[in-house]
Design a protein that fits this description.
The chain has about 280 residues and is an alpha/beta fold. The protein folds into 2 domains: about 140 residues, no CATH class; about 80 residues, no CATH class. The chain has 9 helices and 8 strands. Strands 2-1-5-6-7 form a 5-stranded mixed beta sheet, covered by helices on one side. A hairpin with a 3-residue loop joins strand 5 and strand 6. It starts with a strand and ends with a helix. About 0% of the residues have low confidence.
């Protein structure tokens, strides 16, 4: 086995091939003056070849016995002159290079008996297969680049949308606080211009009840409030729920439980401070 360097510009790859591996291009000799044009072969990779190097698209070098040789002009002339369809389907040195690379990398030349023979390809097959392959590779490269740009932009848009959704402006926070305050105030009973004796009696009883509850729960303590504001309505002690309902005139508990569970801990602390 021998090692062959495959170089594209500055990228190097080494593959191992049989010592007797060769690669040639079959063609009908268009320069022949004979009545019948025989099929000929041009040997590209020999037994002594140890490297093949593509620089750009128009420069091809081959290493033999440790020496690099520029075969660009020779092979360009050969491909242009012997290609039967040069006008409509030209063959570049890049196409020829990848035809050789595919032969080096794959054991197309391996026989059932385990021996190796020279691999060849018809010049028309290079034009047919590797021109389409080059187009597909170029299209895939462009599509991959576009997908990368789209993916990056989409990711950035999603992150920005999430940030904007979570971040409220000072005006929105003030508006939210005022709306919460209005909802709390709307729960309180509106006073009458003429006192109702019956309502005064009810108010005294509620005041006495509130005083009794307040003695049991010290809402003036920040620590007490902090322990309560993170609880859901169902988790609050009964005495605390009673005090809130009394203070906000929601004796039946029709509004306050839903409001408590739907608001944040800041608004809950405001509720407790006003009890």
């Amino acid at each position: 086995m021998r090692e062959v360097e495959i170089i594209v510009n500055e990228d190097v790859e080494i593959v191992s091939v049989n010592d007797f591996f060769t690669f040639s291009v079959k063609y009908h000799n268009l320069s022949s003056t004979a009545d019948t044009i025989p099929e000929s072969e041009k040997l590209i990779v020999r037994w002594s070849t140890t490297g093949i190097w593509l620089i750009g698209d128009n420069e091809l070098l081959i290493e033999e016995d440790g020496n690099w040789r520029d075969v660009s002009k020779e092979l360009s002339f050969f491909l242009e002159w012997q290609n039967p369809d040069t006008t409509h389907s030209s063959i570049s040195l890049r196409m020829l290079f990848y035809a050789i690379v595919d032969s080096l990398k794959h054991d197309y030349w391996k026989t059932p008996f385990g021996t190796y023979q020279g691999h060849s390809i018809r010049i028309s097959e290079i034009a047919q297969h590797y021109s389409r392959k080059a187009i597909r590779e170029e299209q895939k490269s462009i599509q991959d680049e576009q997908n990368g740009v789209i993916s990056k932009k989409l990711k950035k848009d999603v992150i920005n949308h999430a940030k904007n959704k979570l971040r409220s402006t000072p005006e929105e926070r003030v508006k939210s606080g005022l709306e919460a305050w209005d909802r709390l105030e709307s729960l309180k009973a509106k006073g009458n211009t003429v006192p109702d004796p019956r309502q005064a009696s009810i108010d005294r009883r509620e005041k006495d009840k509130k005083a009794t509850v307040t003695k049991a729960v010290d809402f003036t303590s920040p620590l007490v409030r902090k322990q309560l504001v993170y609880k859901q309505w169902a988790e609050l002690p009964h005495i605390v729920k009673s005090l809130i309902l009394i203070n906000y005139e929601d004796r039946e508990g029709n509004v306050m439980p839903q409001y408590w569970d739907g608001t944040d801990y800041i608004q809950r602390e405001i509720i407790l401070q006003h009890c």
